[in-house]
Design brief:
The complex is a heterodimer of chains A (about 250) and B (about 325). Chain A contains eleven helices and no strands. Chain A is an all-alpha fold and about 250 residues long. Chain B has eleven helices and 14 strands. Classes of the chains: A mainly alpha (about 250), B alpha/beta (about 325). The interface of A and B includes residues 3, 74, 77, 82 and 90 of A.
Chain lengths: ~250, ~325
Amino acid sequence: MTTFLRDTATVFTREITPSIREPMGLLFDMGQPLLFLFLFGSLLDGAVGSTWQWFVPGILVMMCLSGPMAAGYTLLVDLIGGSMERMLVSPMNRTAMLVGRTMKTMVVLLAQAVLIIVLALPLGFQLHPAGVLAGLAMLVALGVGLGALSFVLAIKSAPDGTLFYIVTQVLLFPLLLLSGVLLPMDAGPGWLRVIGNLNPITYIVDAQRALFAGDLTNLSVLYGTAATLVVAVGGLVLGNRAMRQGV
Amino acid sequence: MIHTRGLTRVFKVKKQTVEAVRGIDLDVETGQLVAFLGPNGAGKSTTLRMLTTLLPPTSGTATVAGHDVAREPAKVRARIGYVGQKNGAGENFRARDELVVQGRAYGLTTAQARERADELLDLLDLGPLAQRKPGTLSGGQRRRLDIALGLIHRPELLFLDEPSTGLDPQSRADIWTHILRLREAYGTTLFLTTHYLEEADSMAERVVIIDNGRIIADGTAAKLKNDLAGDQITITTNTAQEAETAARIGEATAEGTTVRLRVPNAAAALPEYLRTLEAAGVKVATAETSRPTLDDVFLALTGRSLTDDDIPA
């Protein structure tokens, strides 16, 4: 166990060091969510009025989808190069390699989420502390699951990575559009709402909106938590198995 | 240091079974420098991946640095170093940071890892490049960094997969200087694969040739060449007819006006051959002897040339 903790710390330190050395990179990674927040969000606010409370949680979920995907990408780069192989020859714990990387994704995600919330405050976003904390916890759990799934995808895609690019490019945007992150799904036609209801992200977005509005007992929170747990547990189980099977 | 018995690895590719390594028996003693030679797809890297615990053997056993690779992979990993075909340092990380991570991966404390990292940066002349990322290094510098990563825990046994492939001659010579210096200083057992015949020939004290998943020759380069290929005498004559006669006498075949024949000791055989030819009325224009190369050995064993299909990836 002690070696597991030490190895997790080693992997975490390795992964976080470039971000600490070049913190501006974290801001660049946030480019898309920030653009949506300020440009699309302002547009929406102007058109519909007082939408920040509704829009910001969606942006956080959006970030939570793209961040962990990028984490898989860093693993893919290590797999295509020789650095993953180098670590697999070392006595480091296999699960620690996954957990350390996931922790890094988590920390970055949390930092970025807090930054988005802080930036949204002057726009008129209202803070409900308990809801925000619960919302962030759910985001982190989702991020862990998605990060692990993204690692599995990266491992399955090596050595050329084609599968990874195809899945992330093809999956990410429809998942976002069909979750009502940008515009309410209620406005769409019936068939779109049906598809939206099949998308686990929809439930998480709804739950986030309820939480950030301070409505902790809303039924959607329950559904969102369930969807998050499915993603998190599924991701960790698959990720651990992929890592242990060898790369 | 390495003992394998019947080491075999089978891959299933699209429902077809491919036997990459077929029953390898190999014993490498402590302190040896062994070159593992063979064409692409011969099973070199697969064997290396099994010996370094990256790939479980399908059957057979391998004991590396005192421990079985299948039963106690963690103990094997702690004792061996590995320099893979690809660059070991991550693209997004600084050279020294990666060395420190590597040290911690092998159980050093952060302080020990830092000290060791600086030591290795010095040893491999990488000091000024400590804060650089791999992308900004030359091929030779990246390779030296890979070797530094493989040495962080002072392994008793170091595996190197194609350590000099893709480098210019200057960098190749430089890498070899470092490898040999290392061996001199620490007595590290070295097991390496290579494409370059002349490298295996001049550097390794033992050459193991693998083809089609099997070891087909094993010994010092000199012994392999003597036993399996022999020296070569090349003479040219003025006319093709004389060459025919010379070939018949030497029990060889002529190509135009050139005759090549294999003999155990060319320097001793040449004067005798020339006297015989003169007596037969053949006028020899030029004559030379050459020592065989490892490629000749491979050719003698398989009927194919190693260099034919052996283009570095």
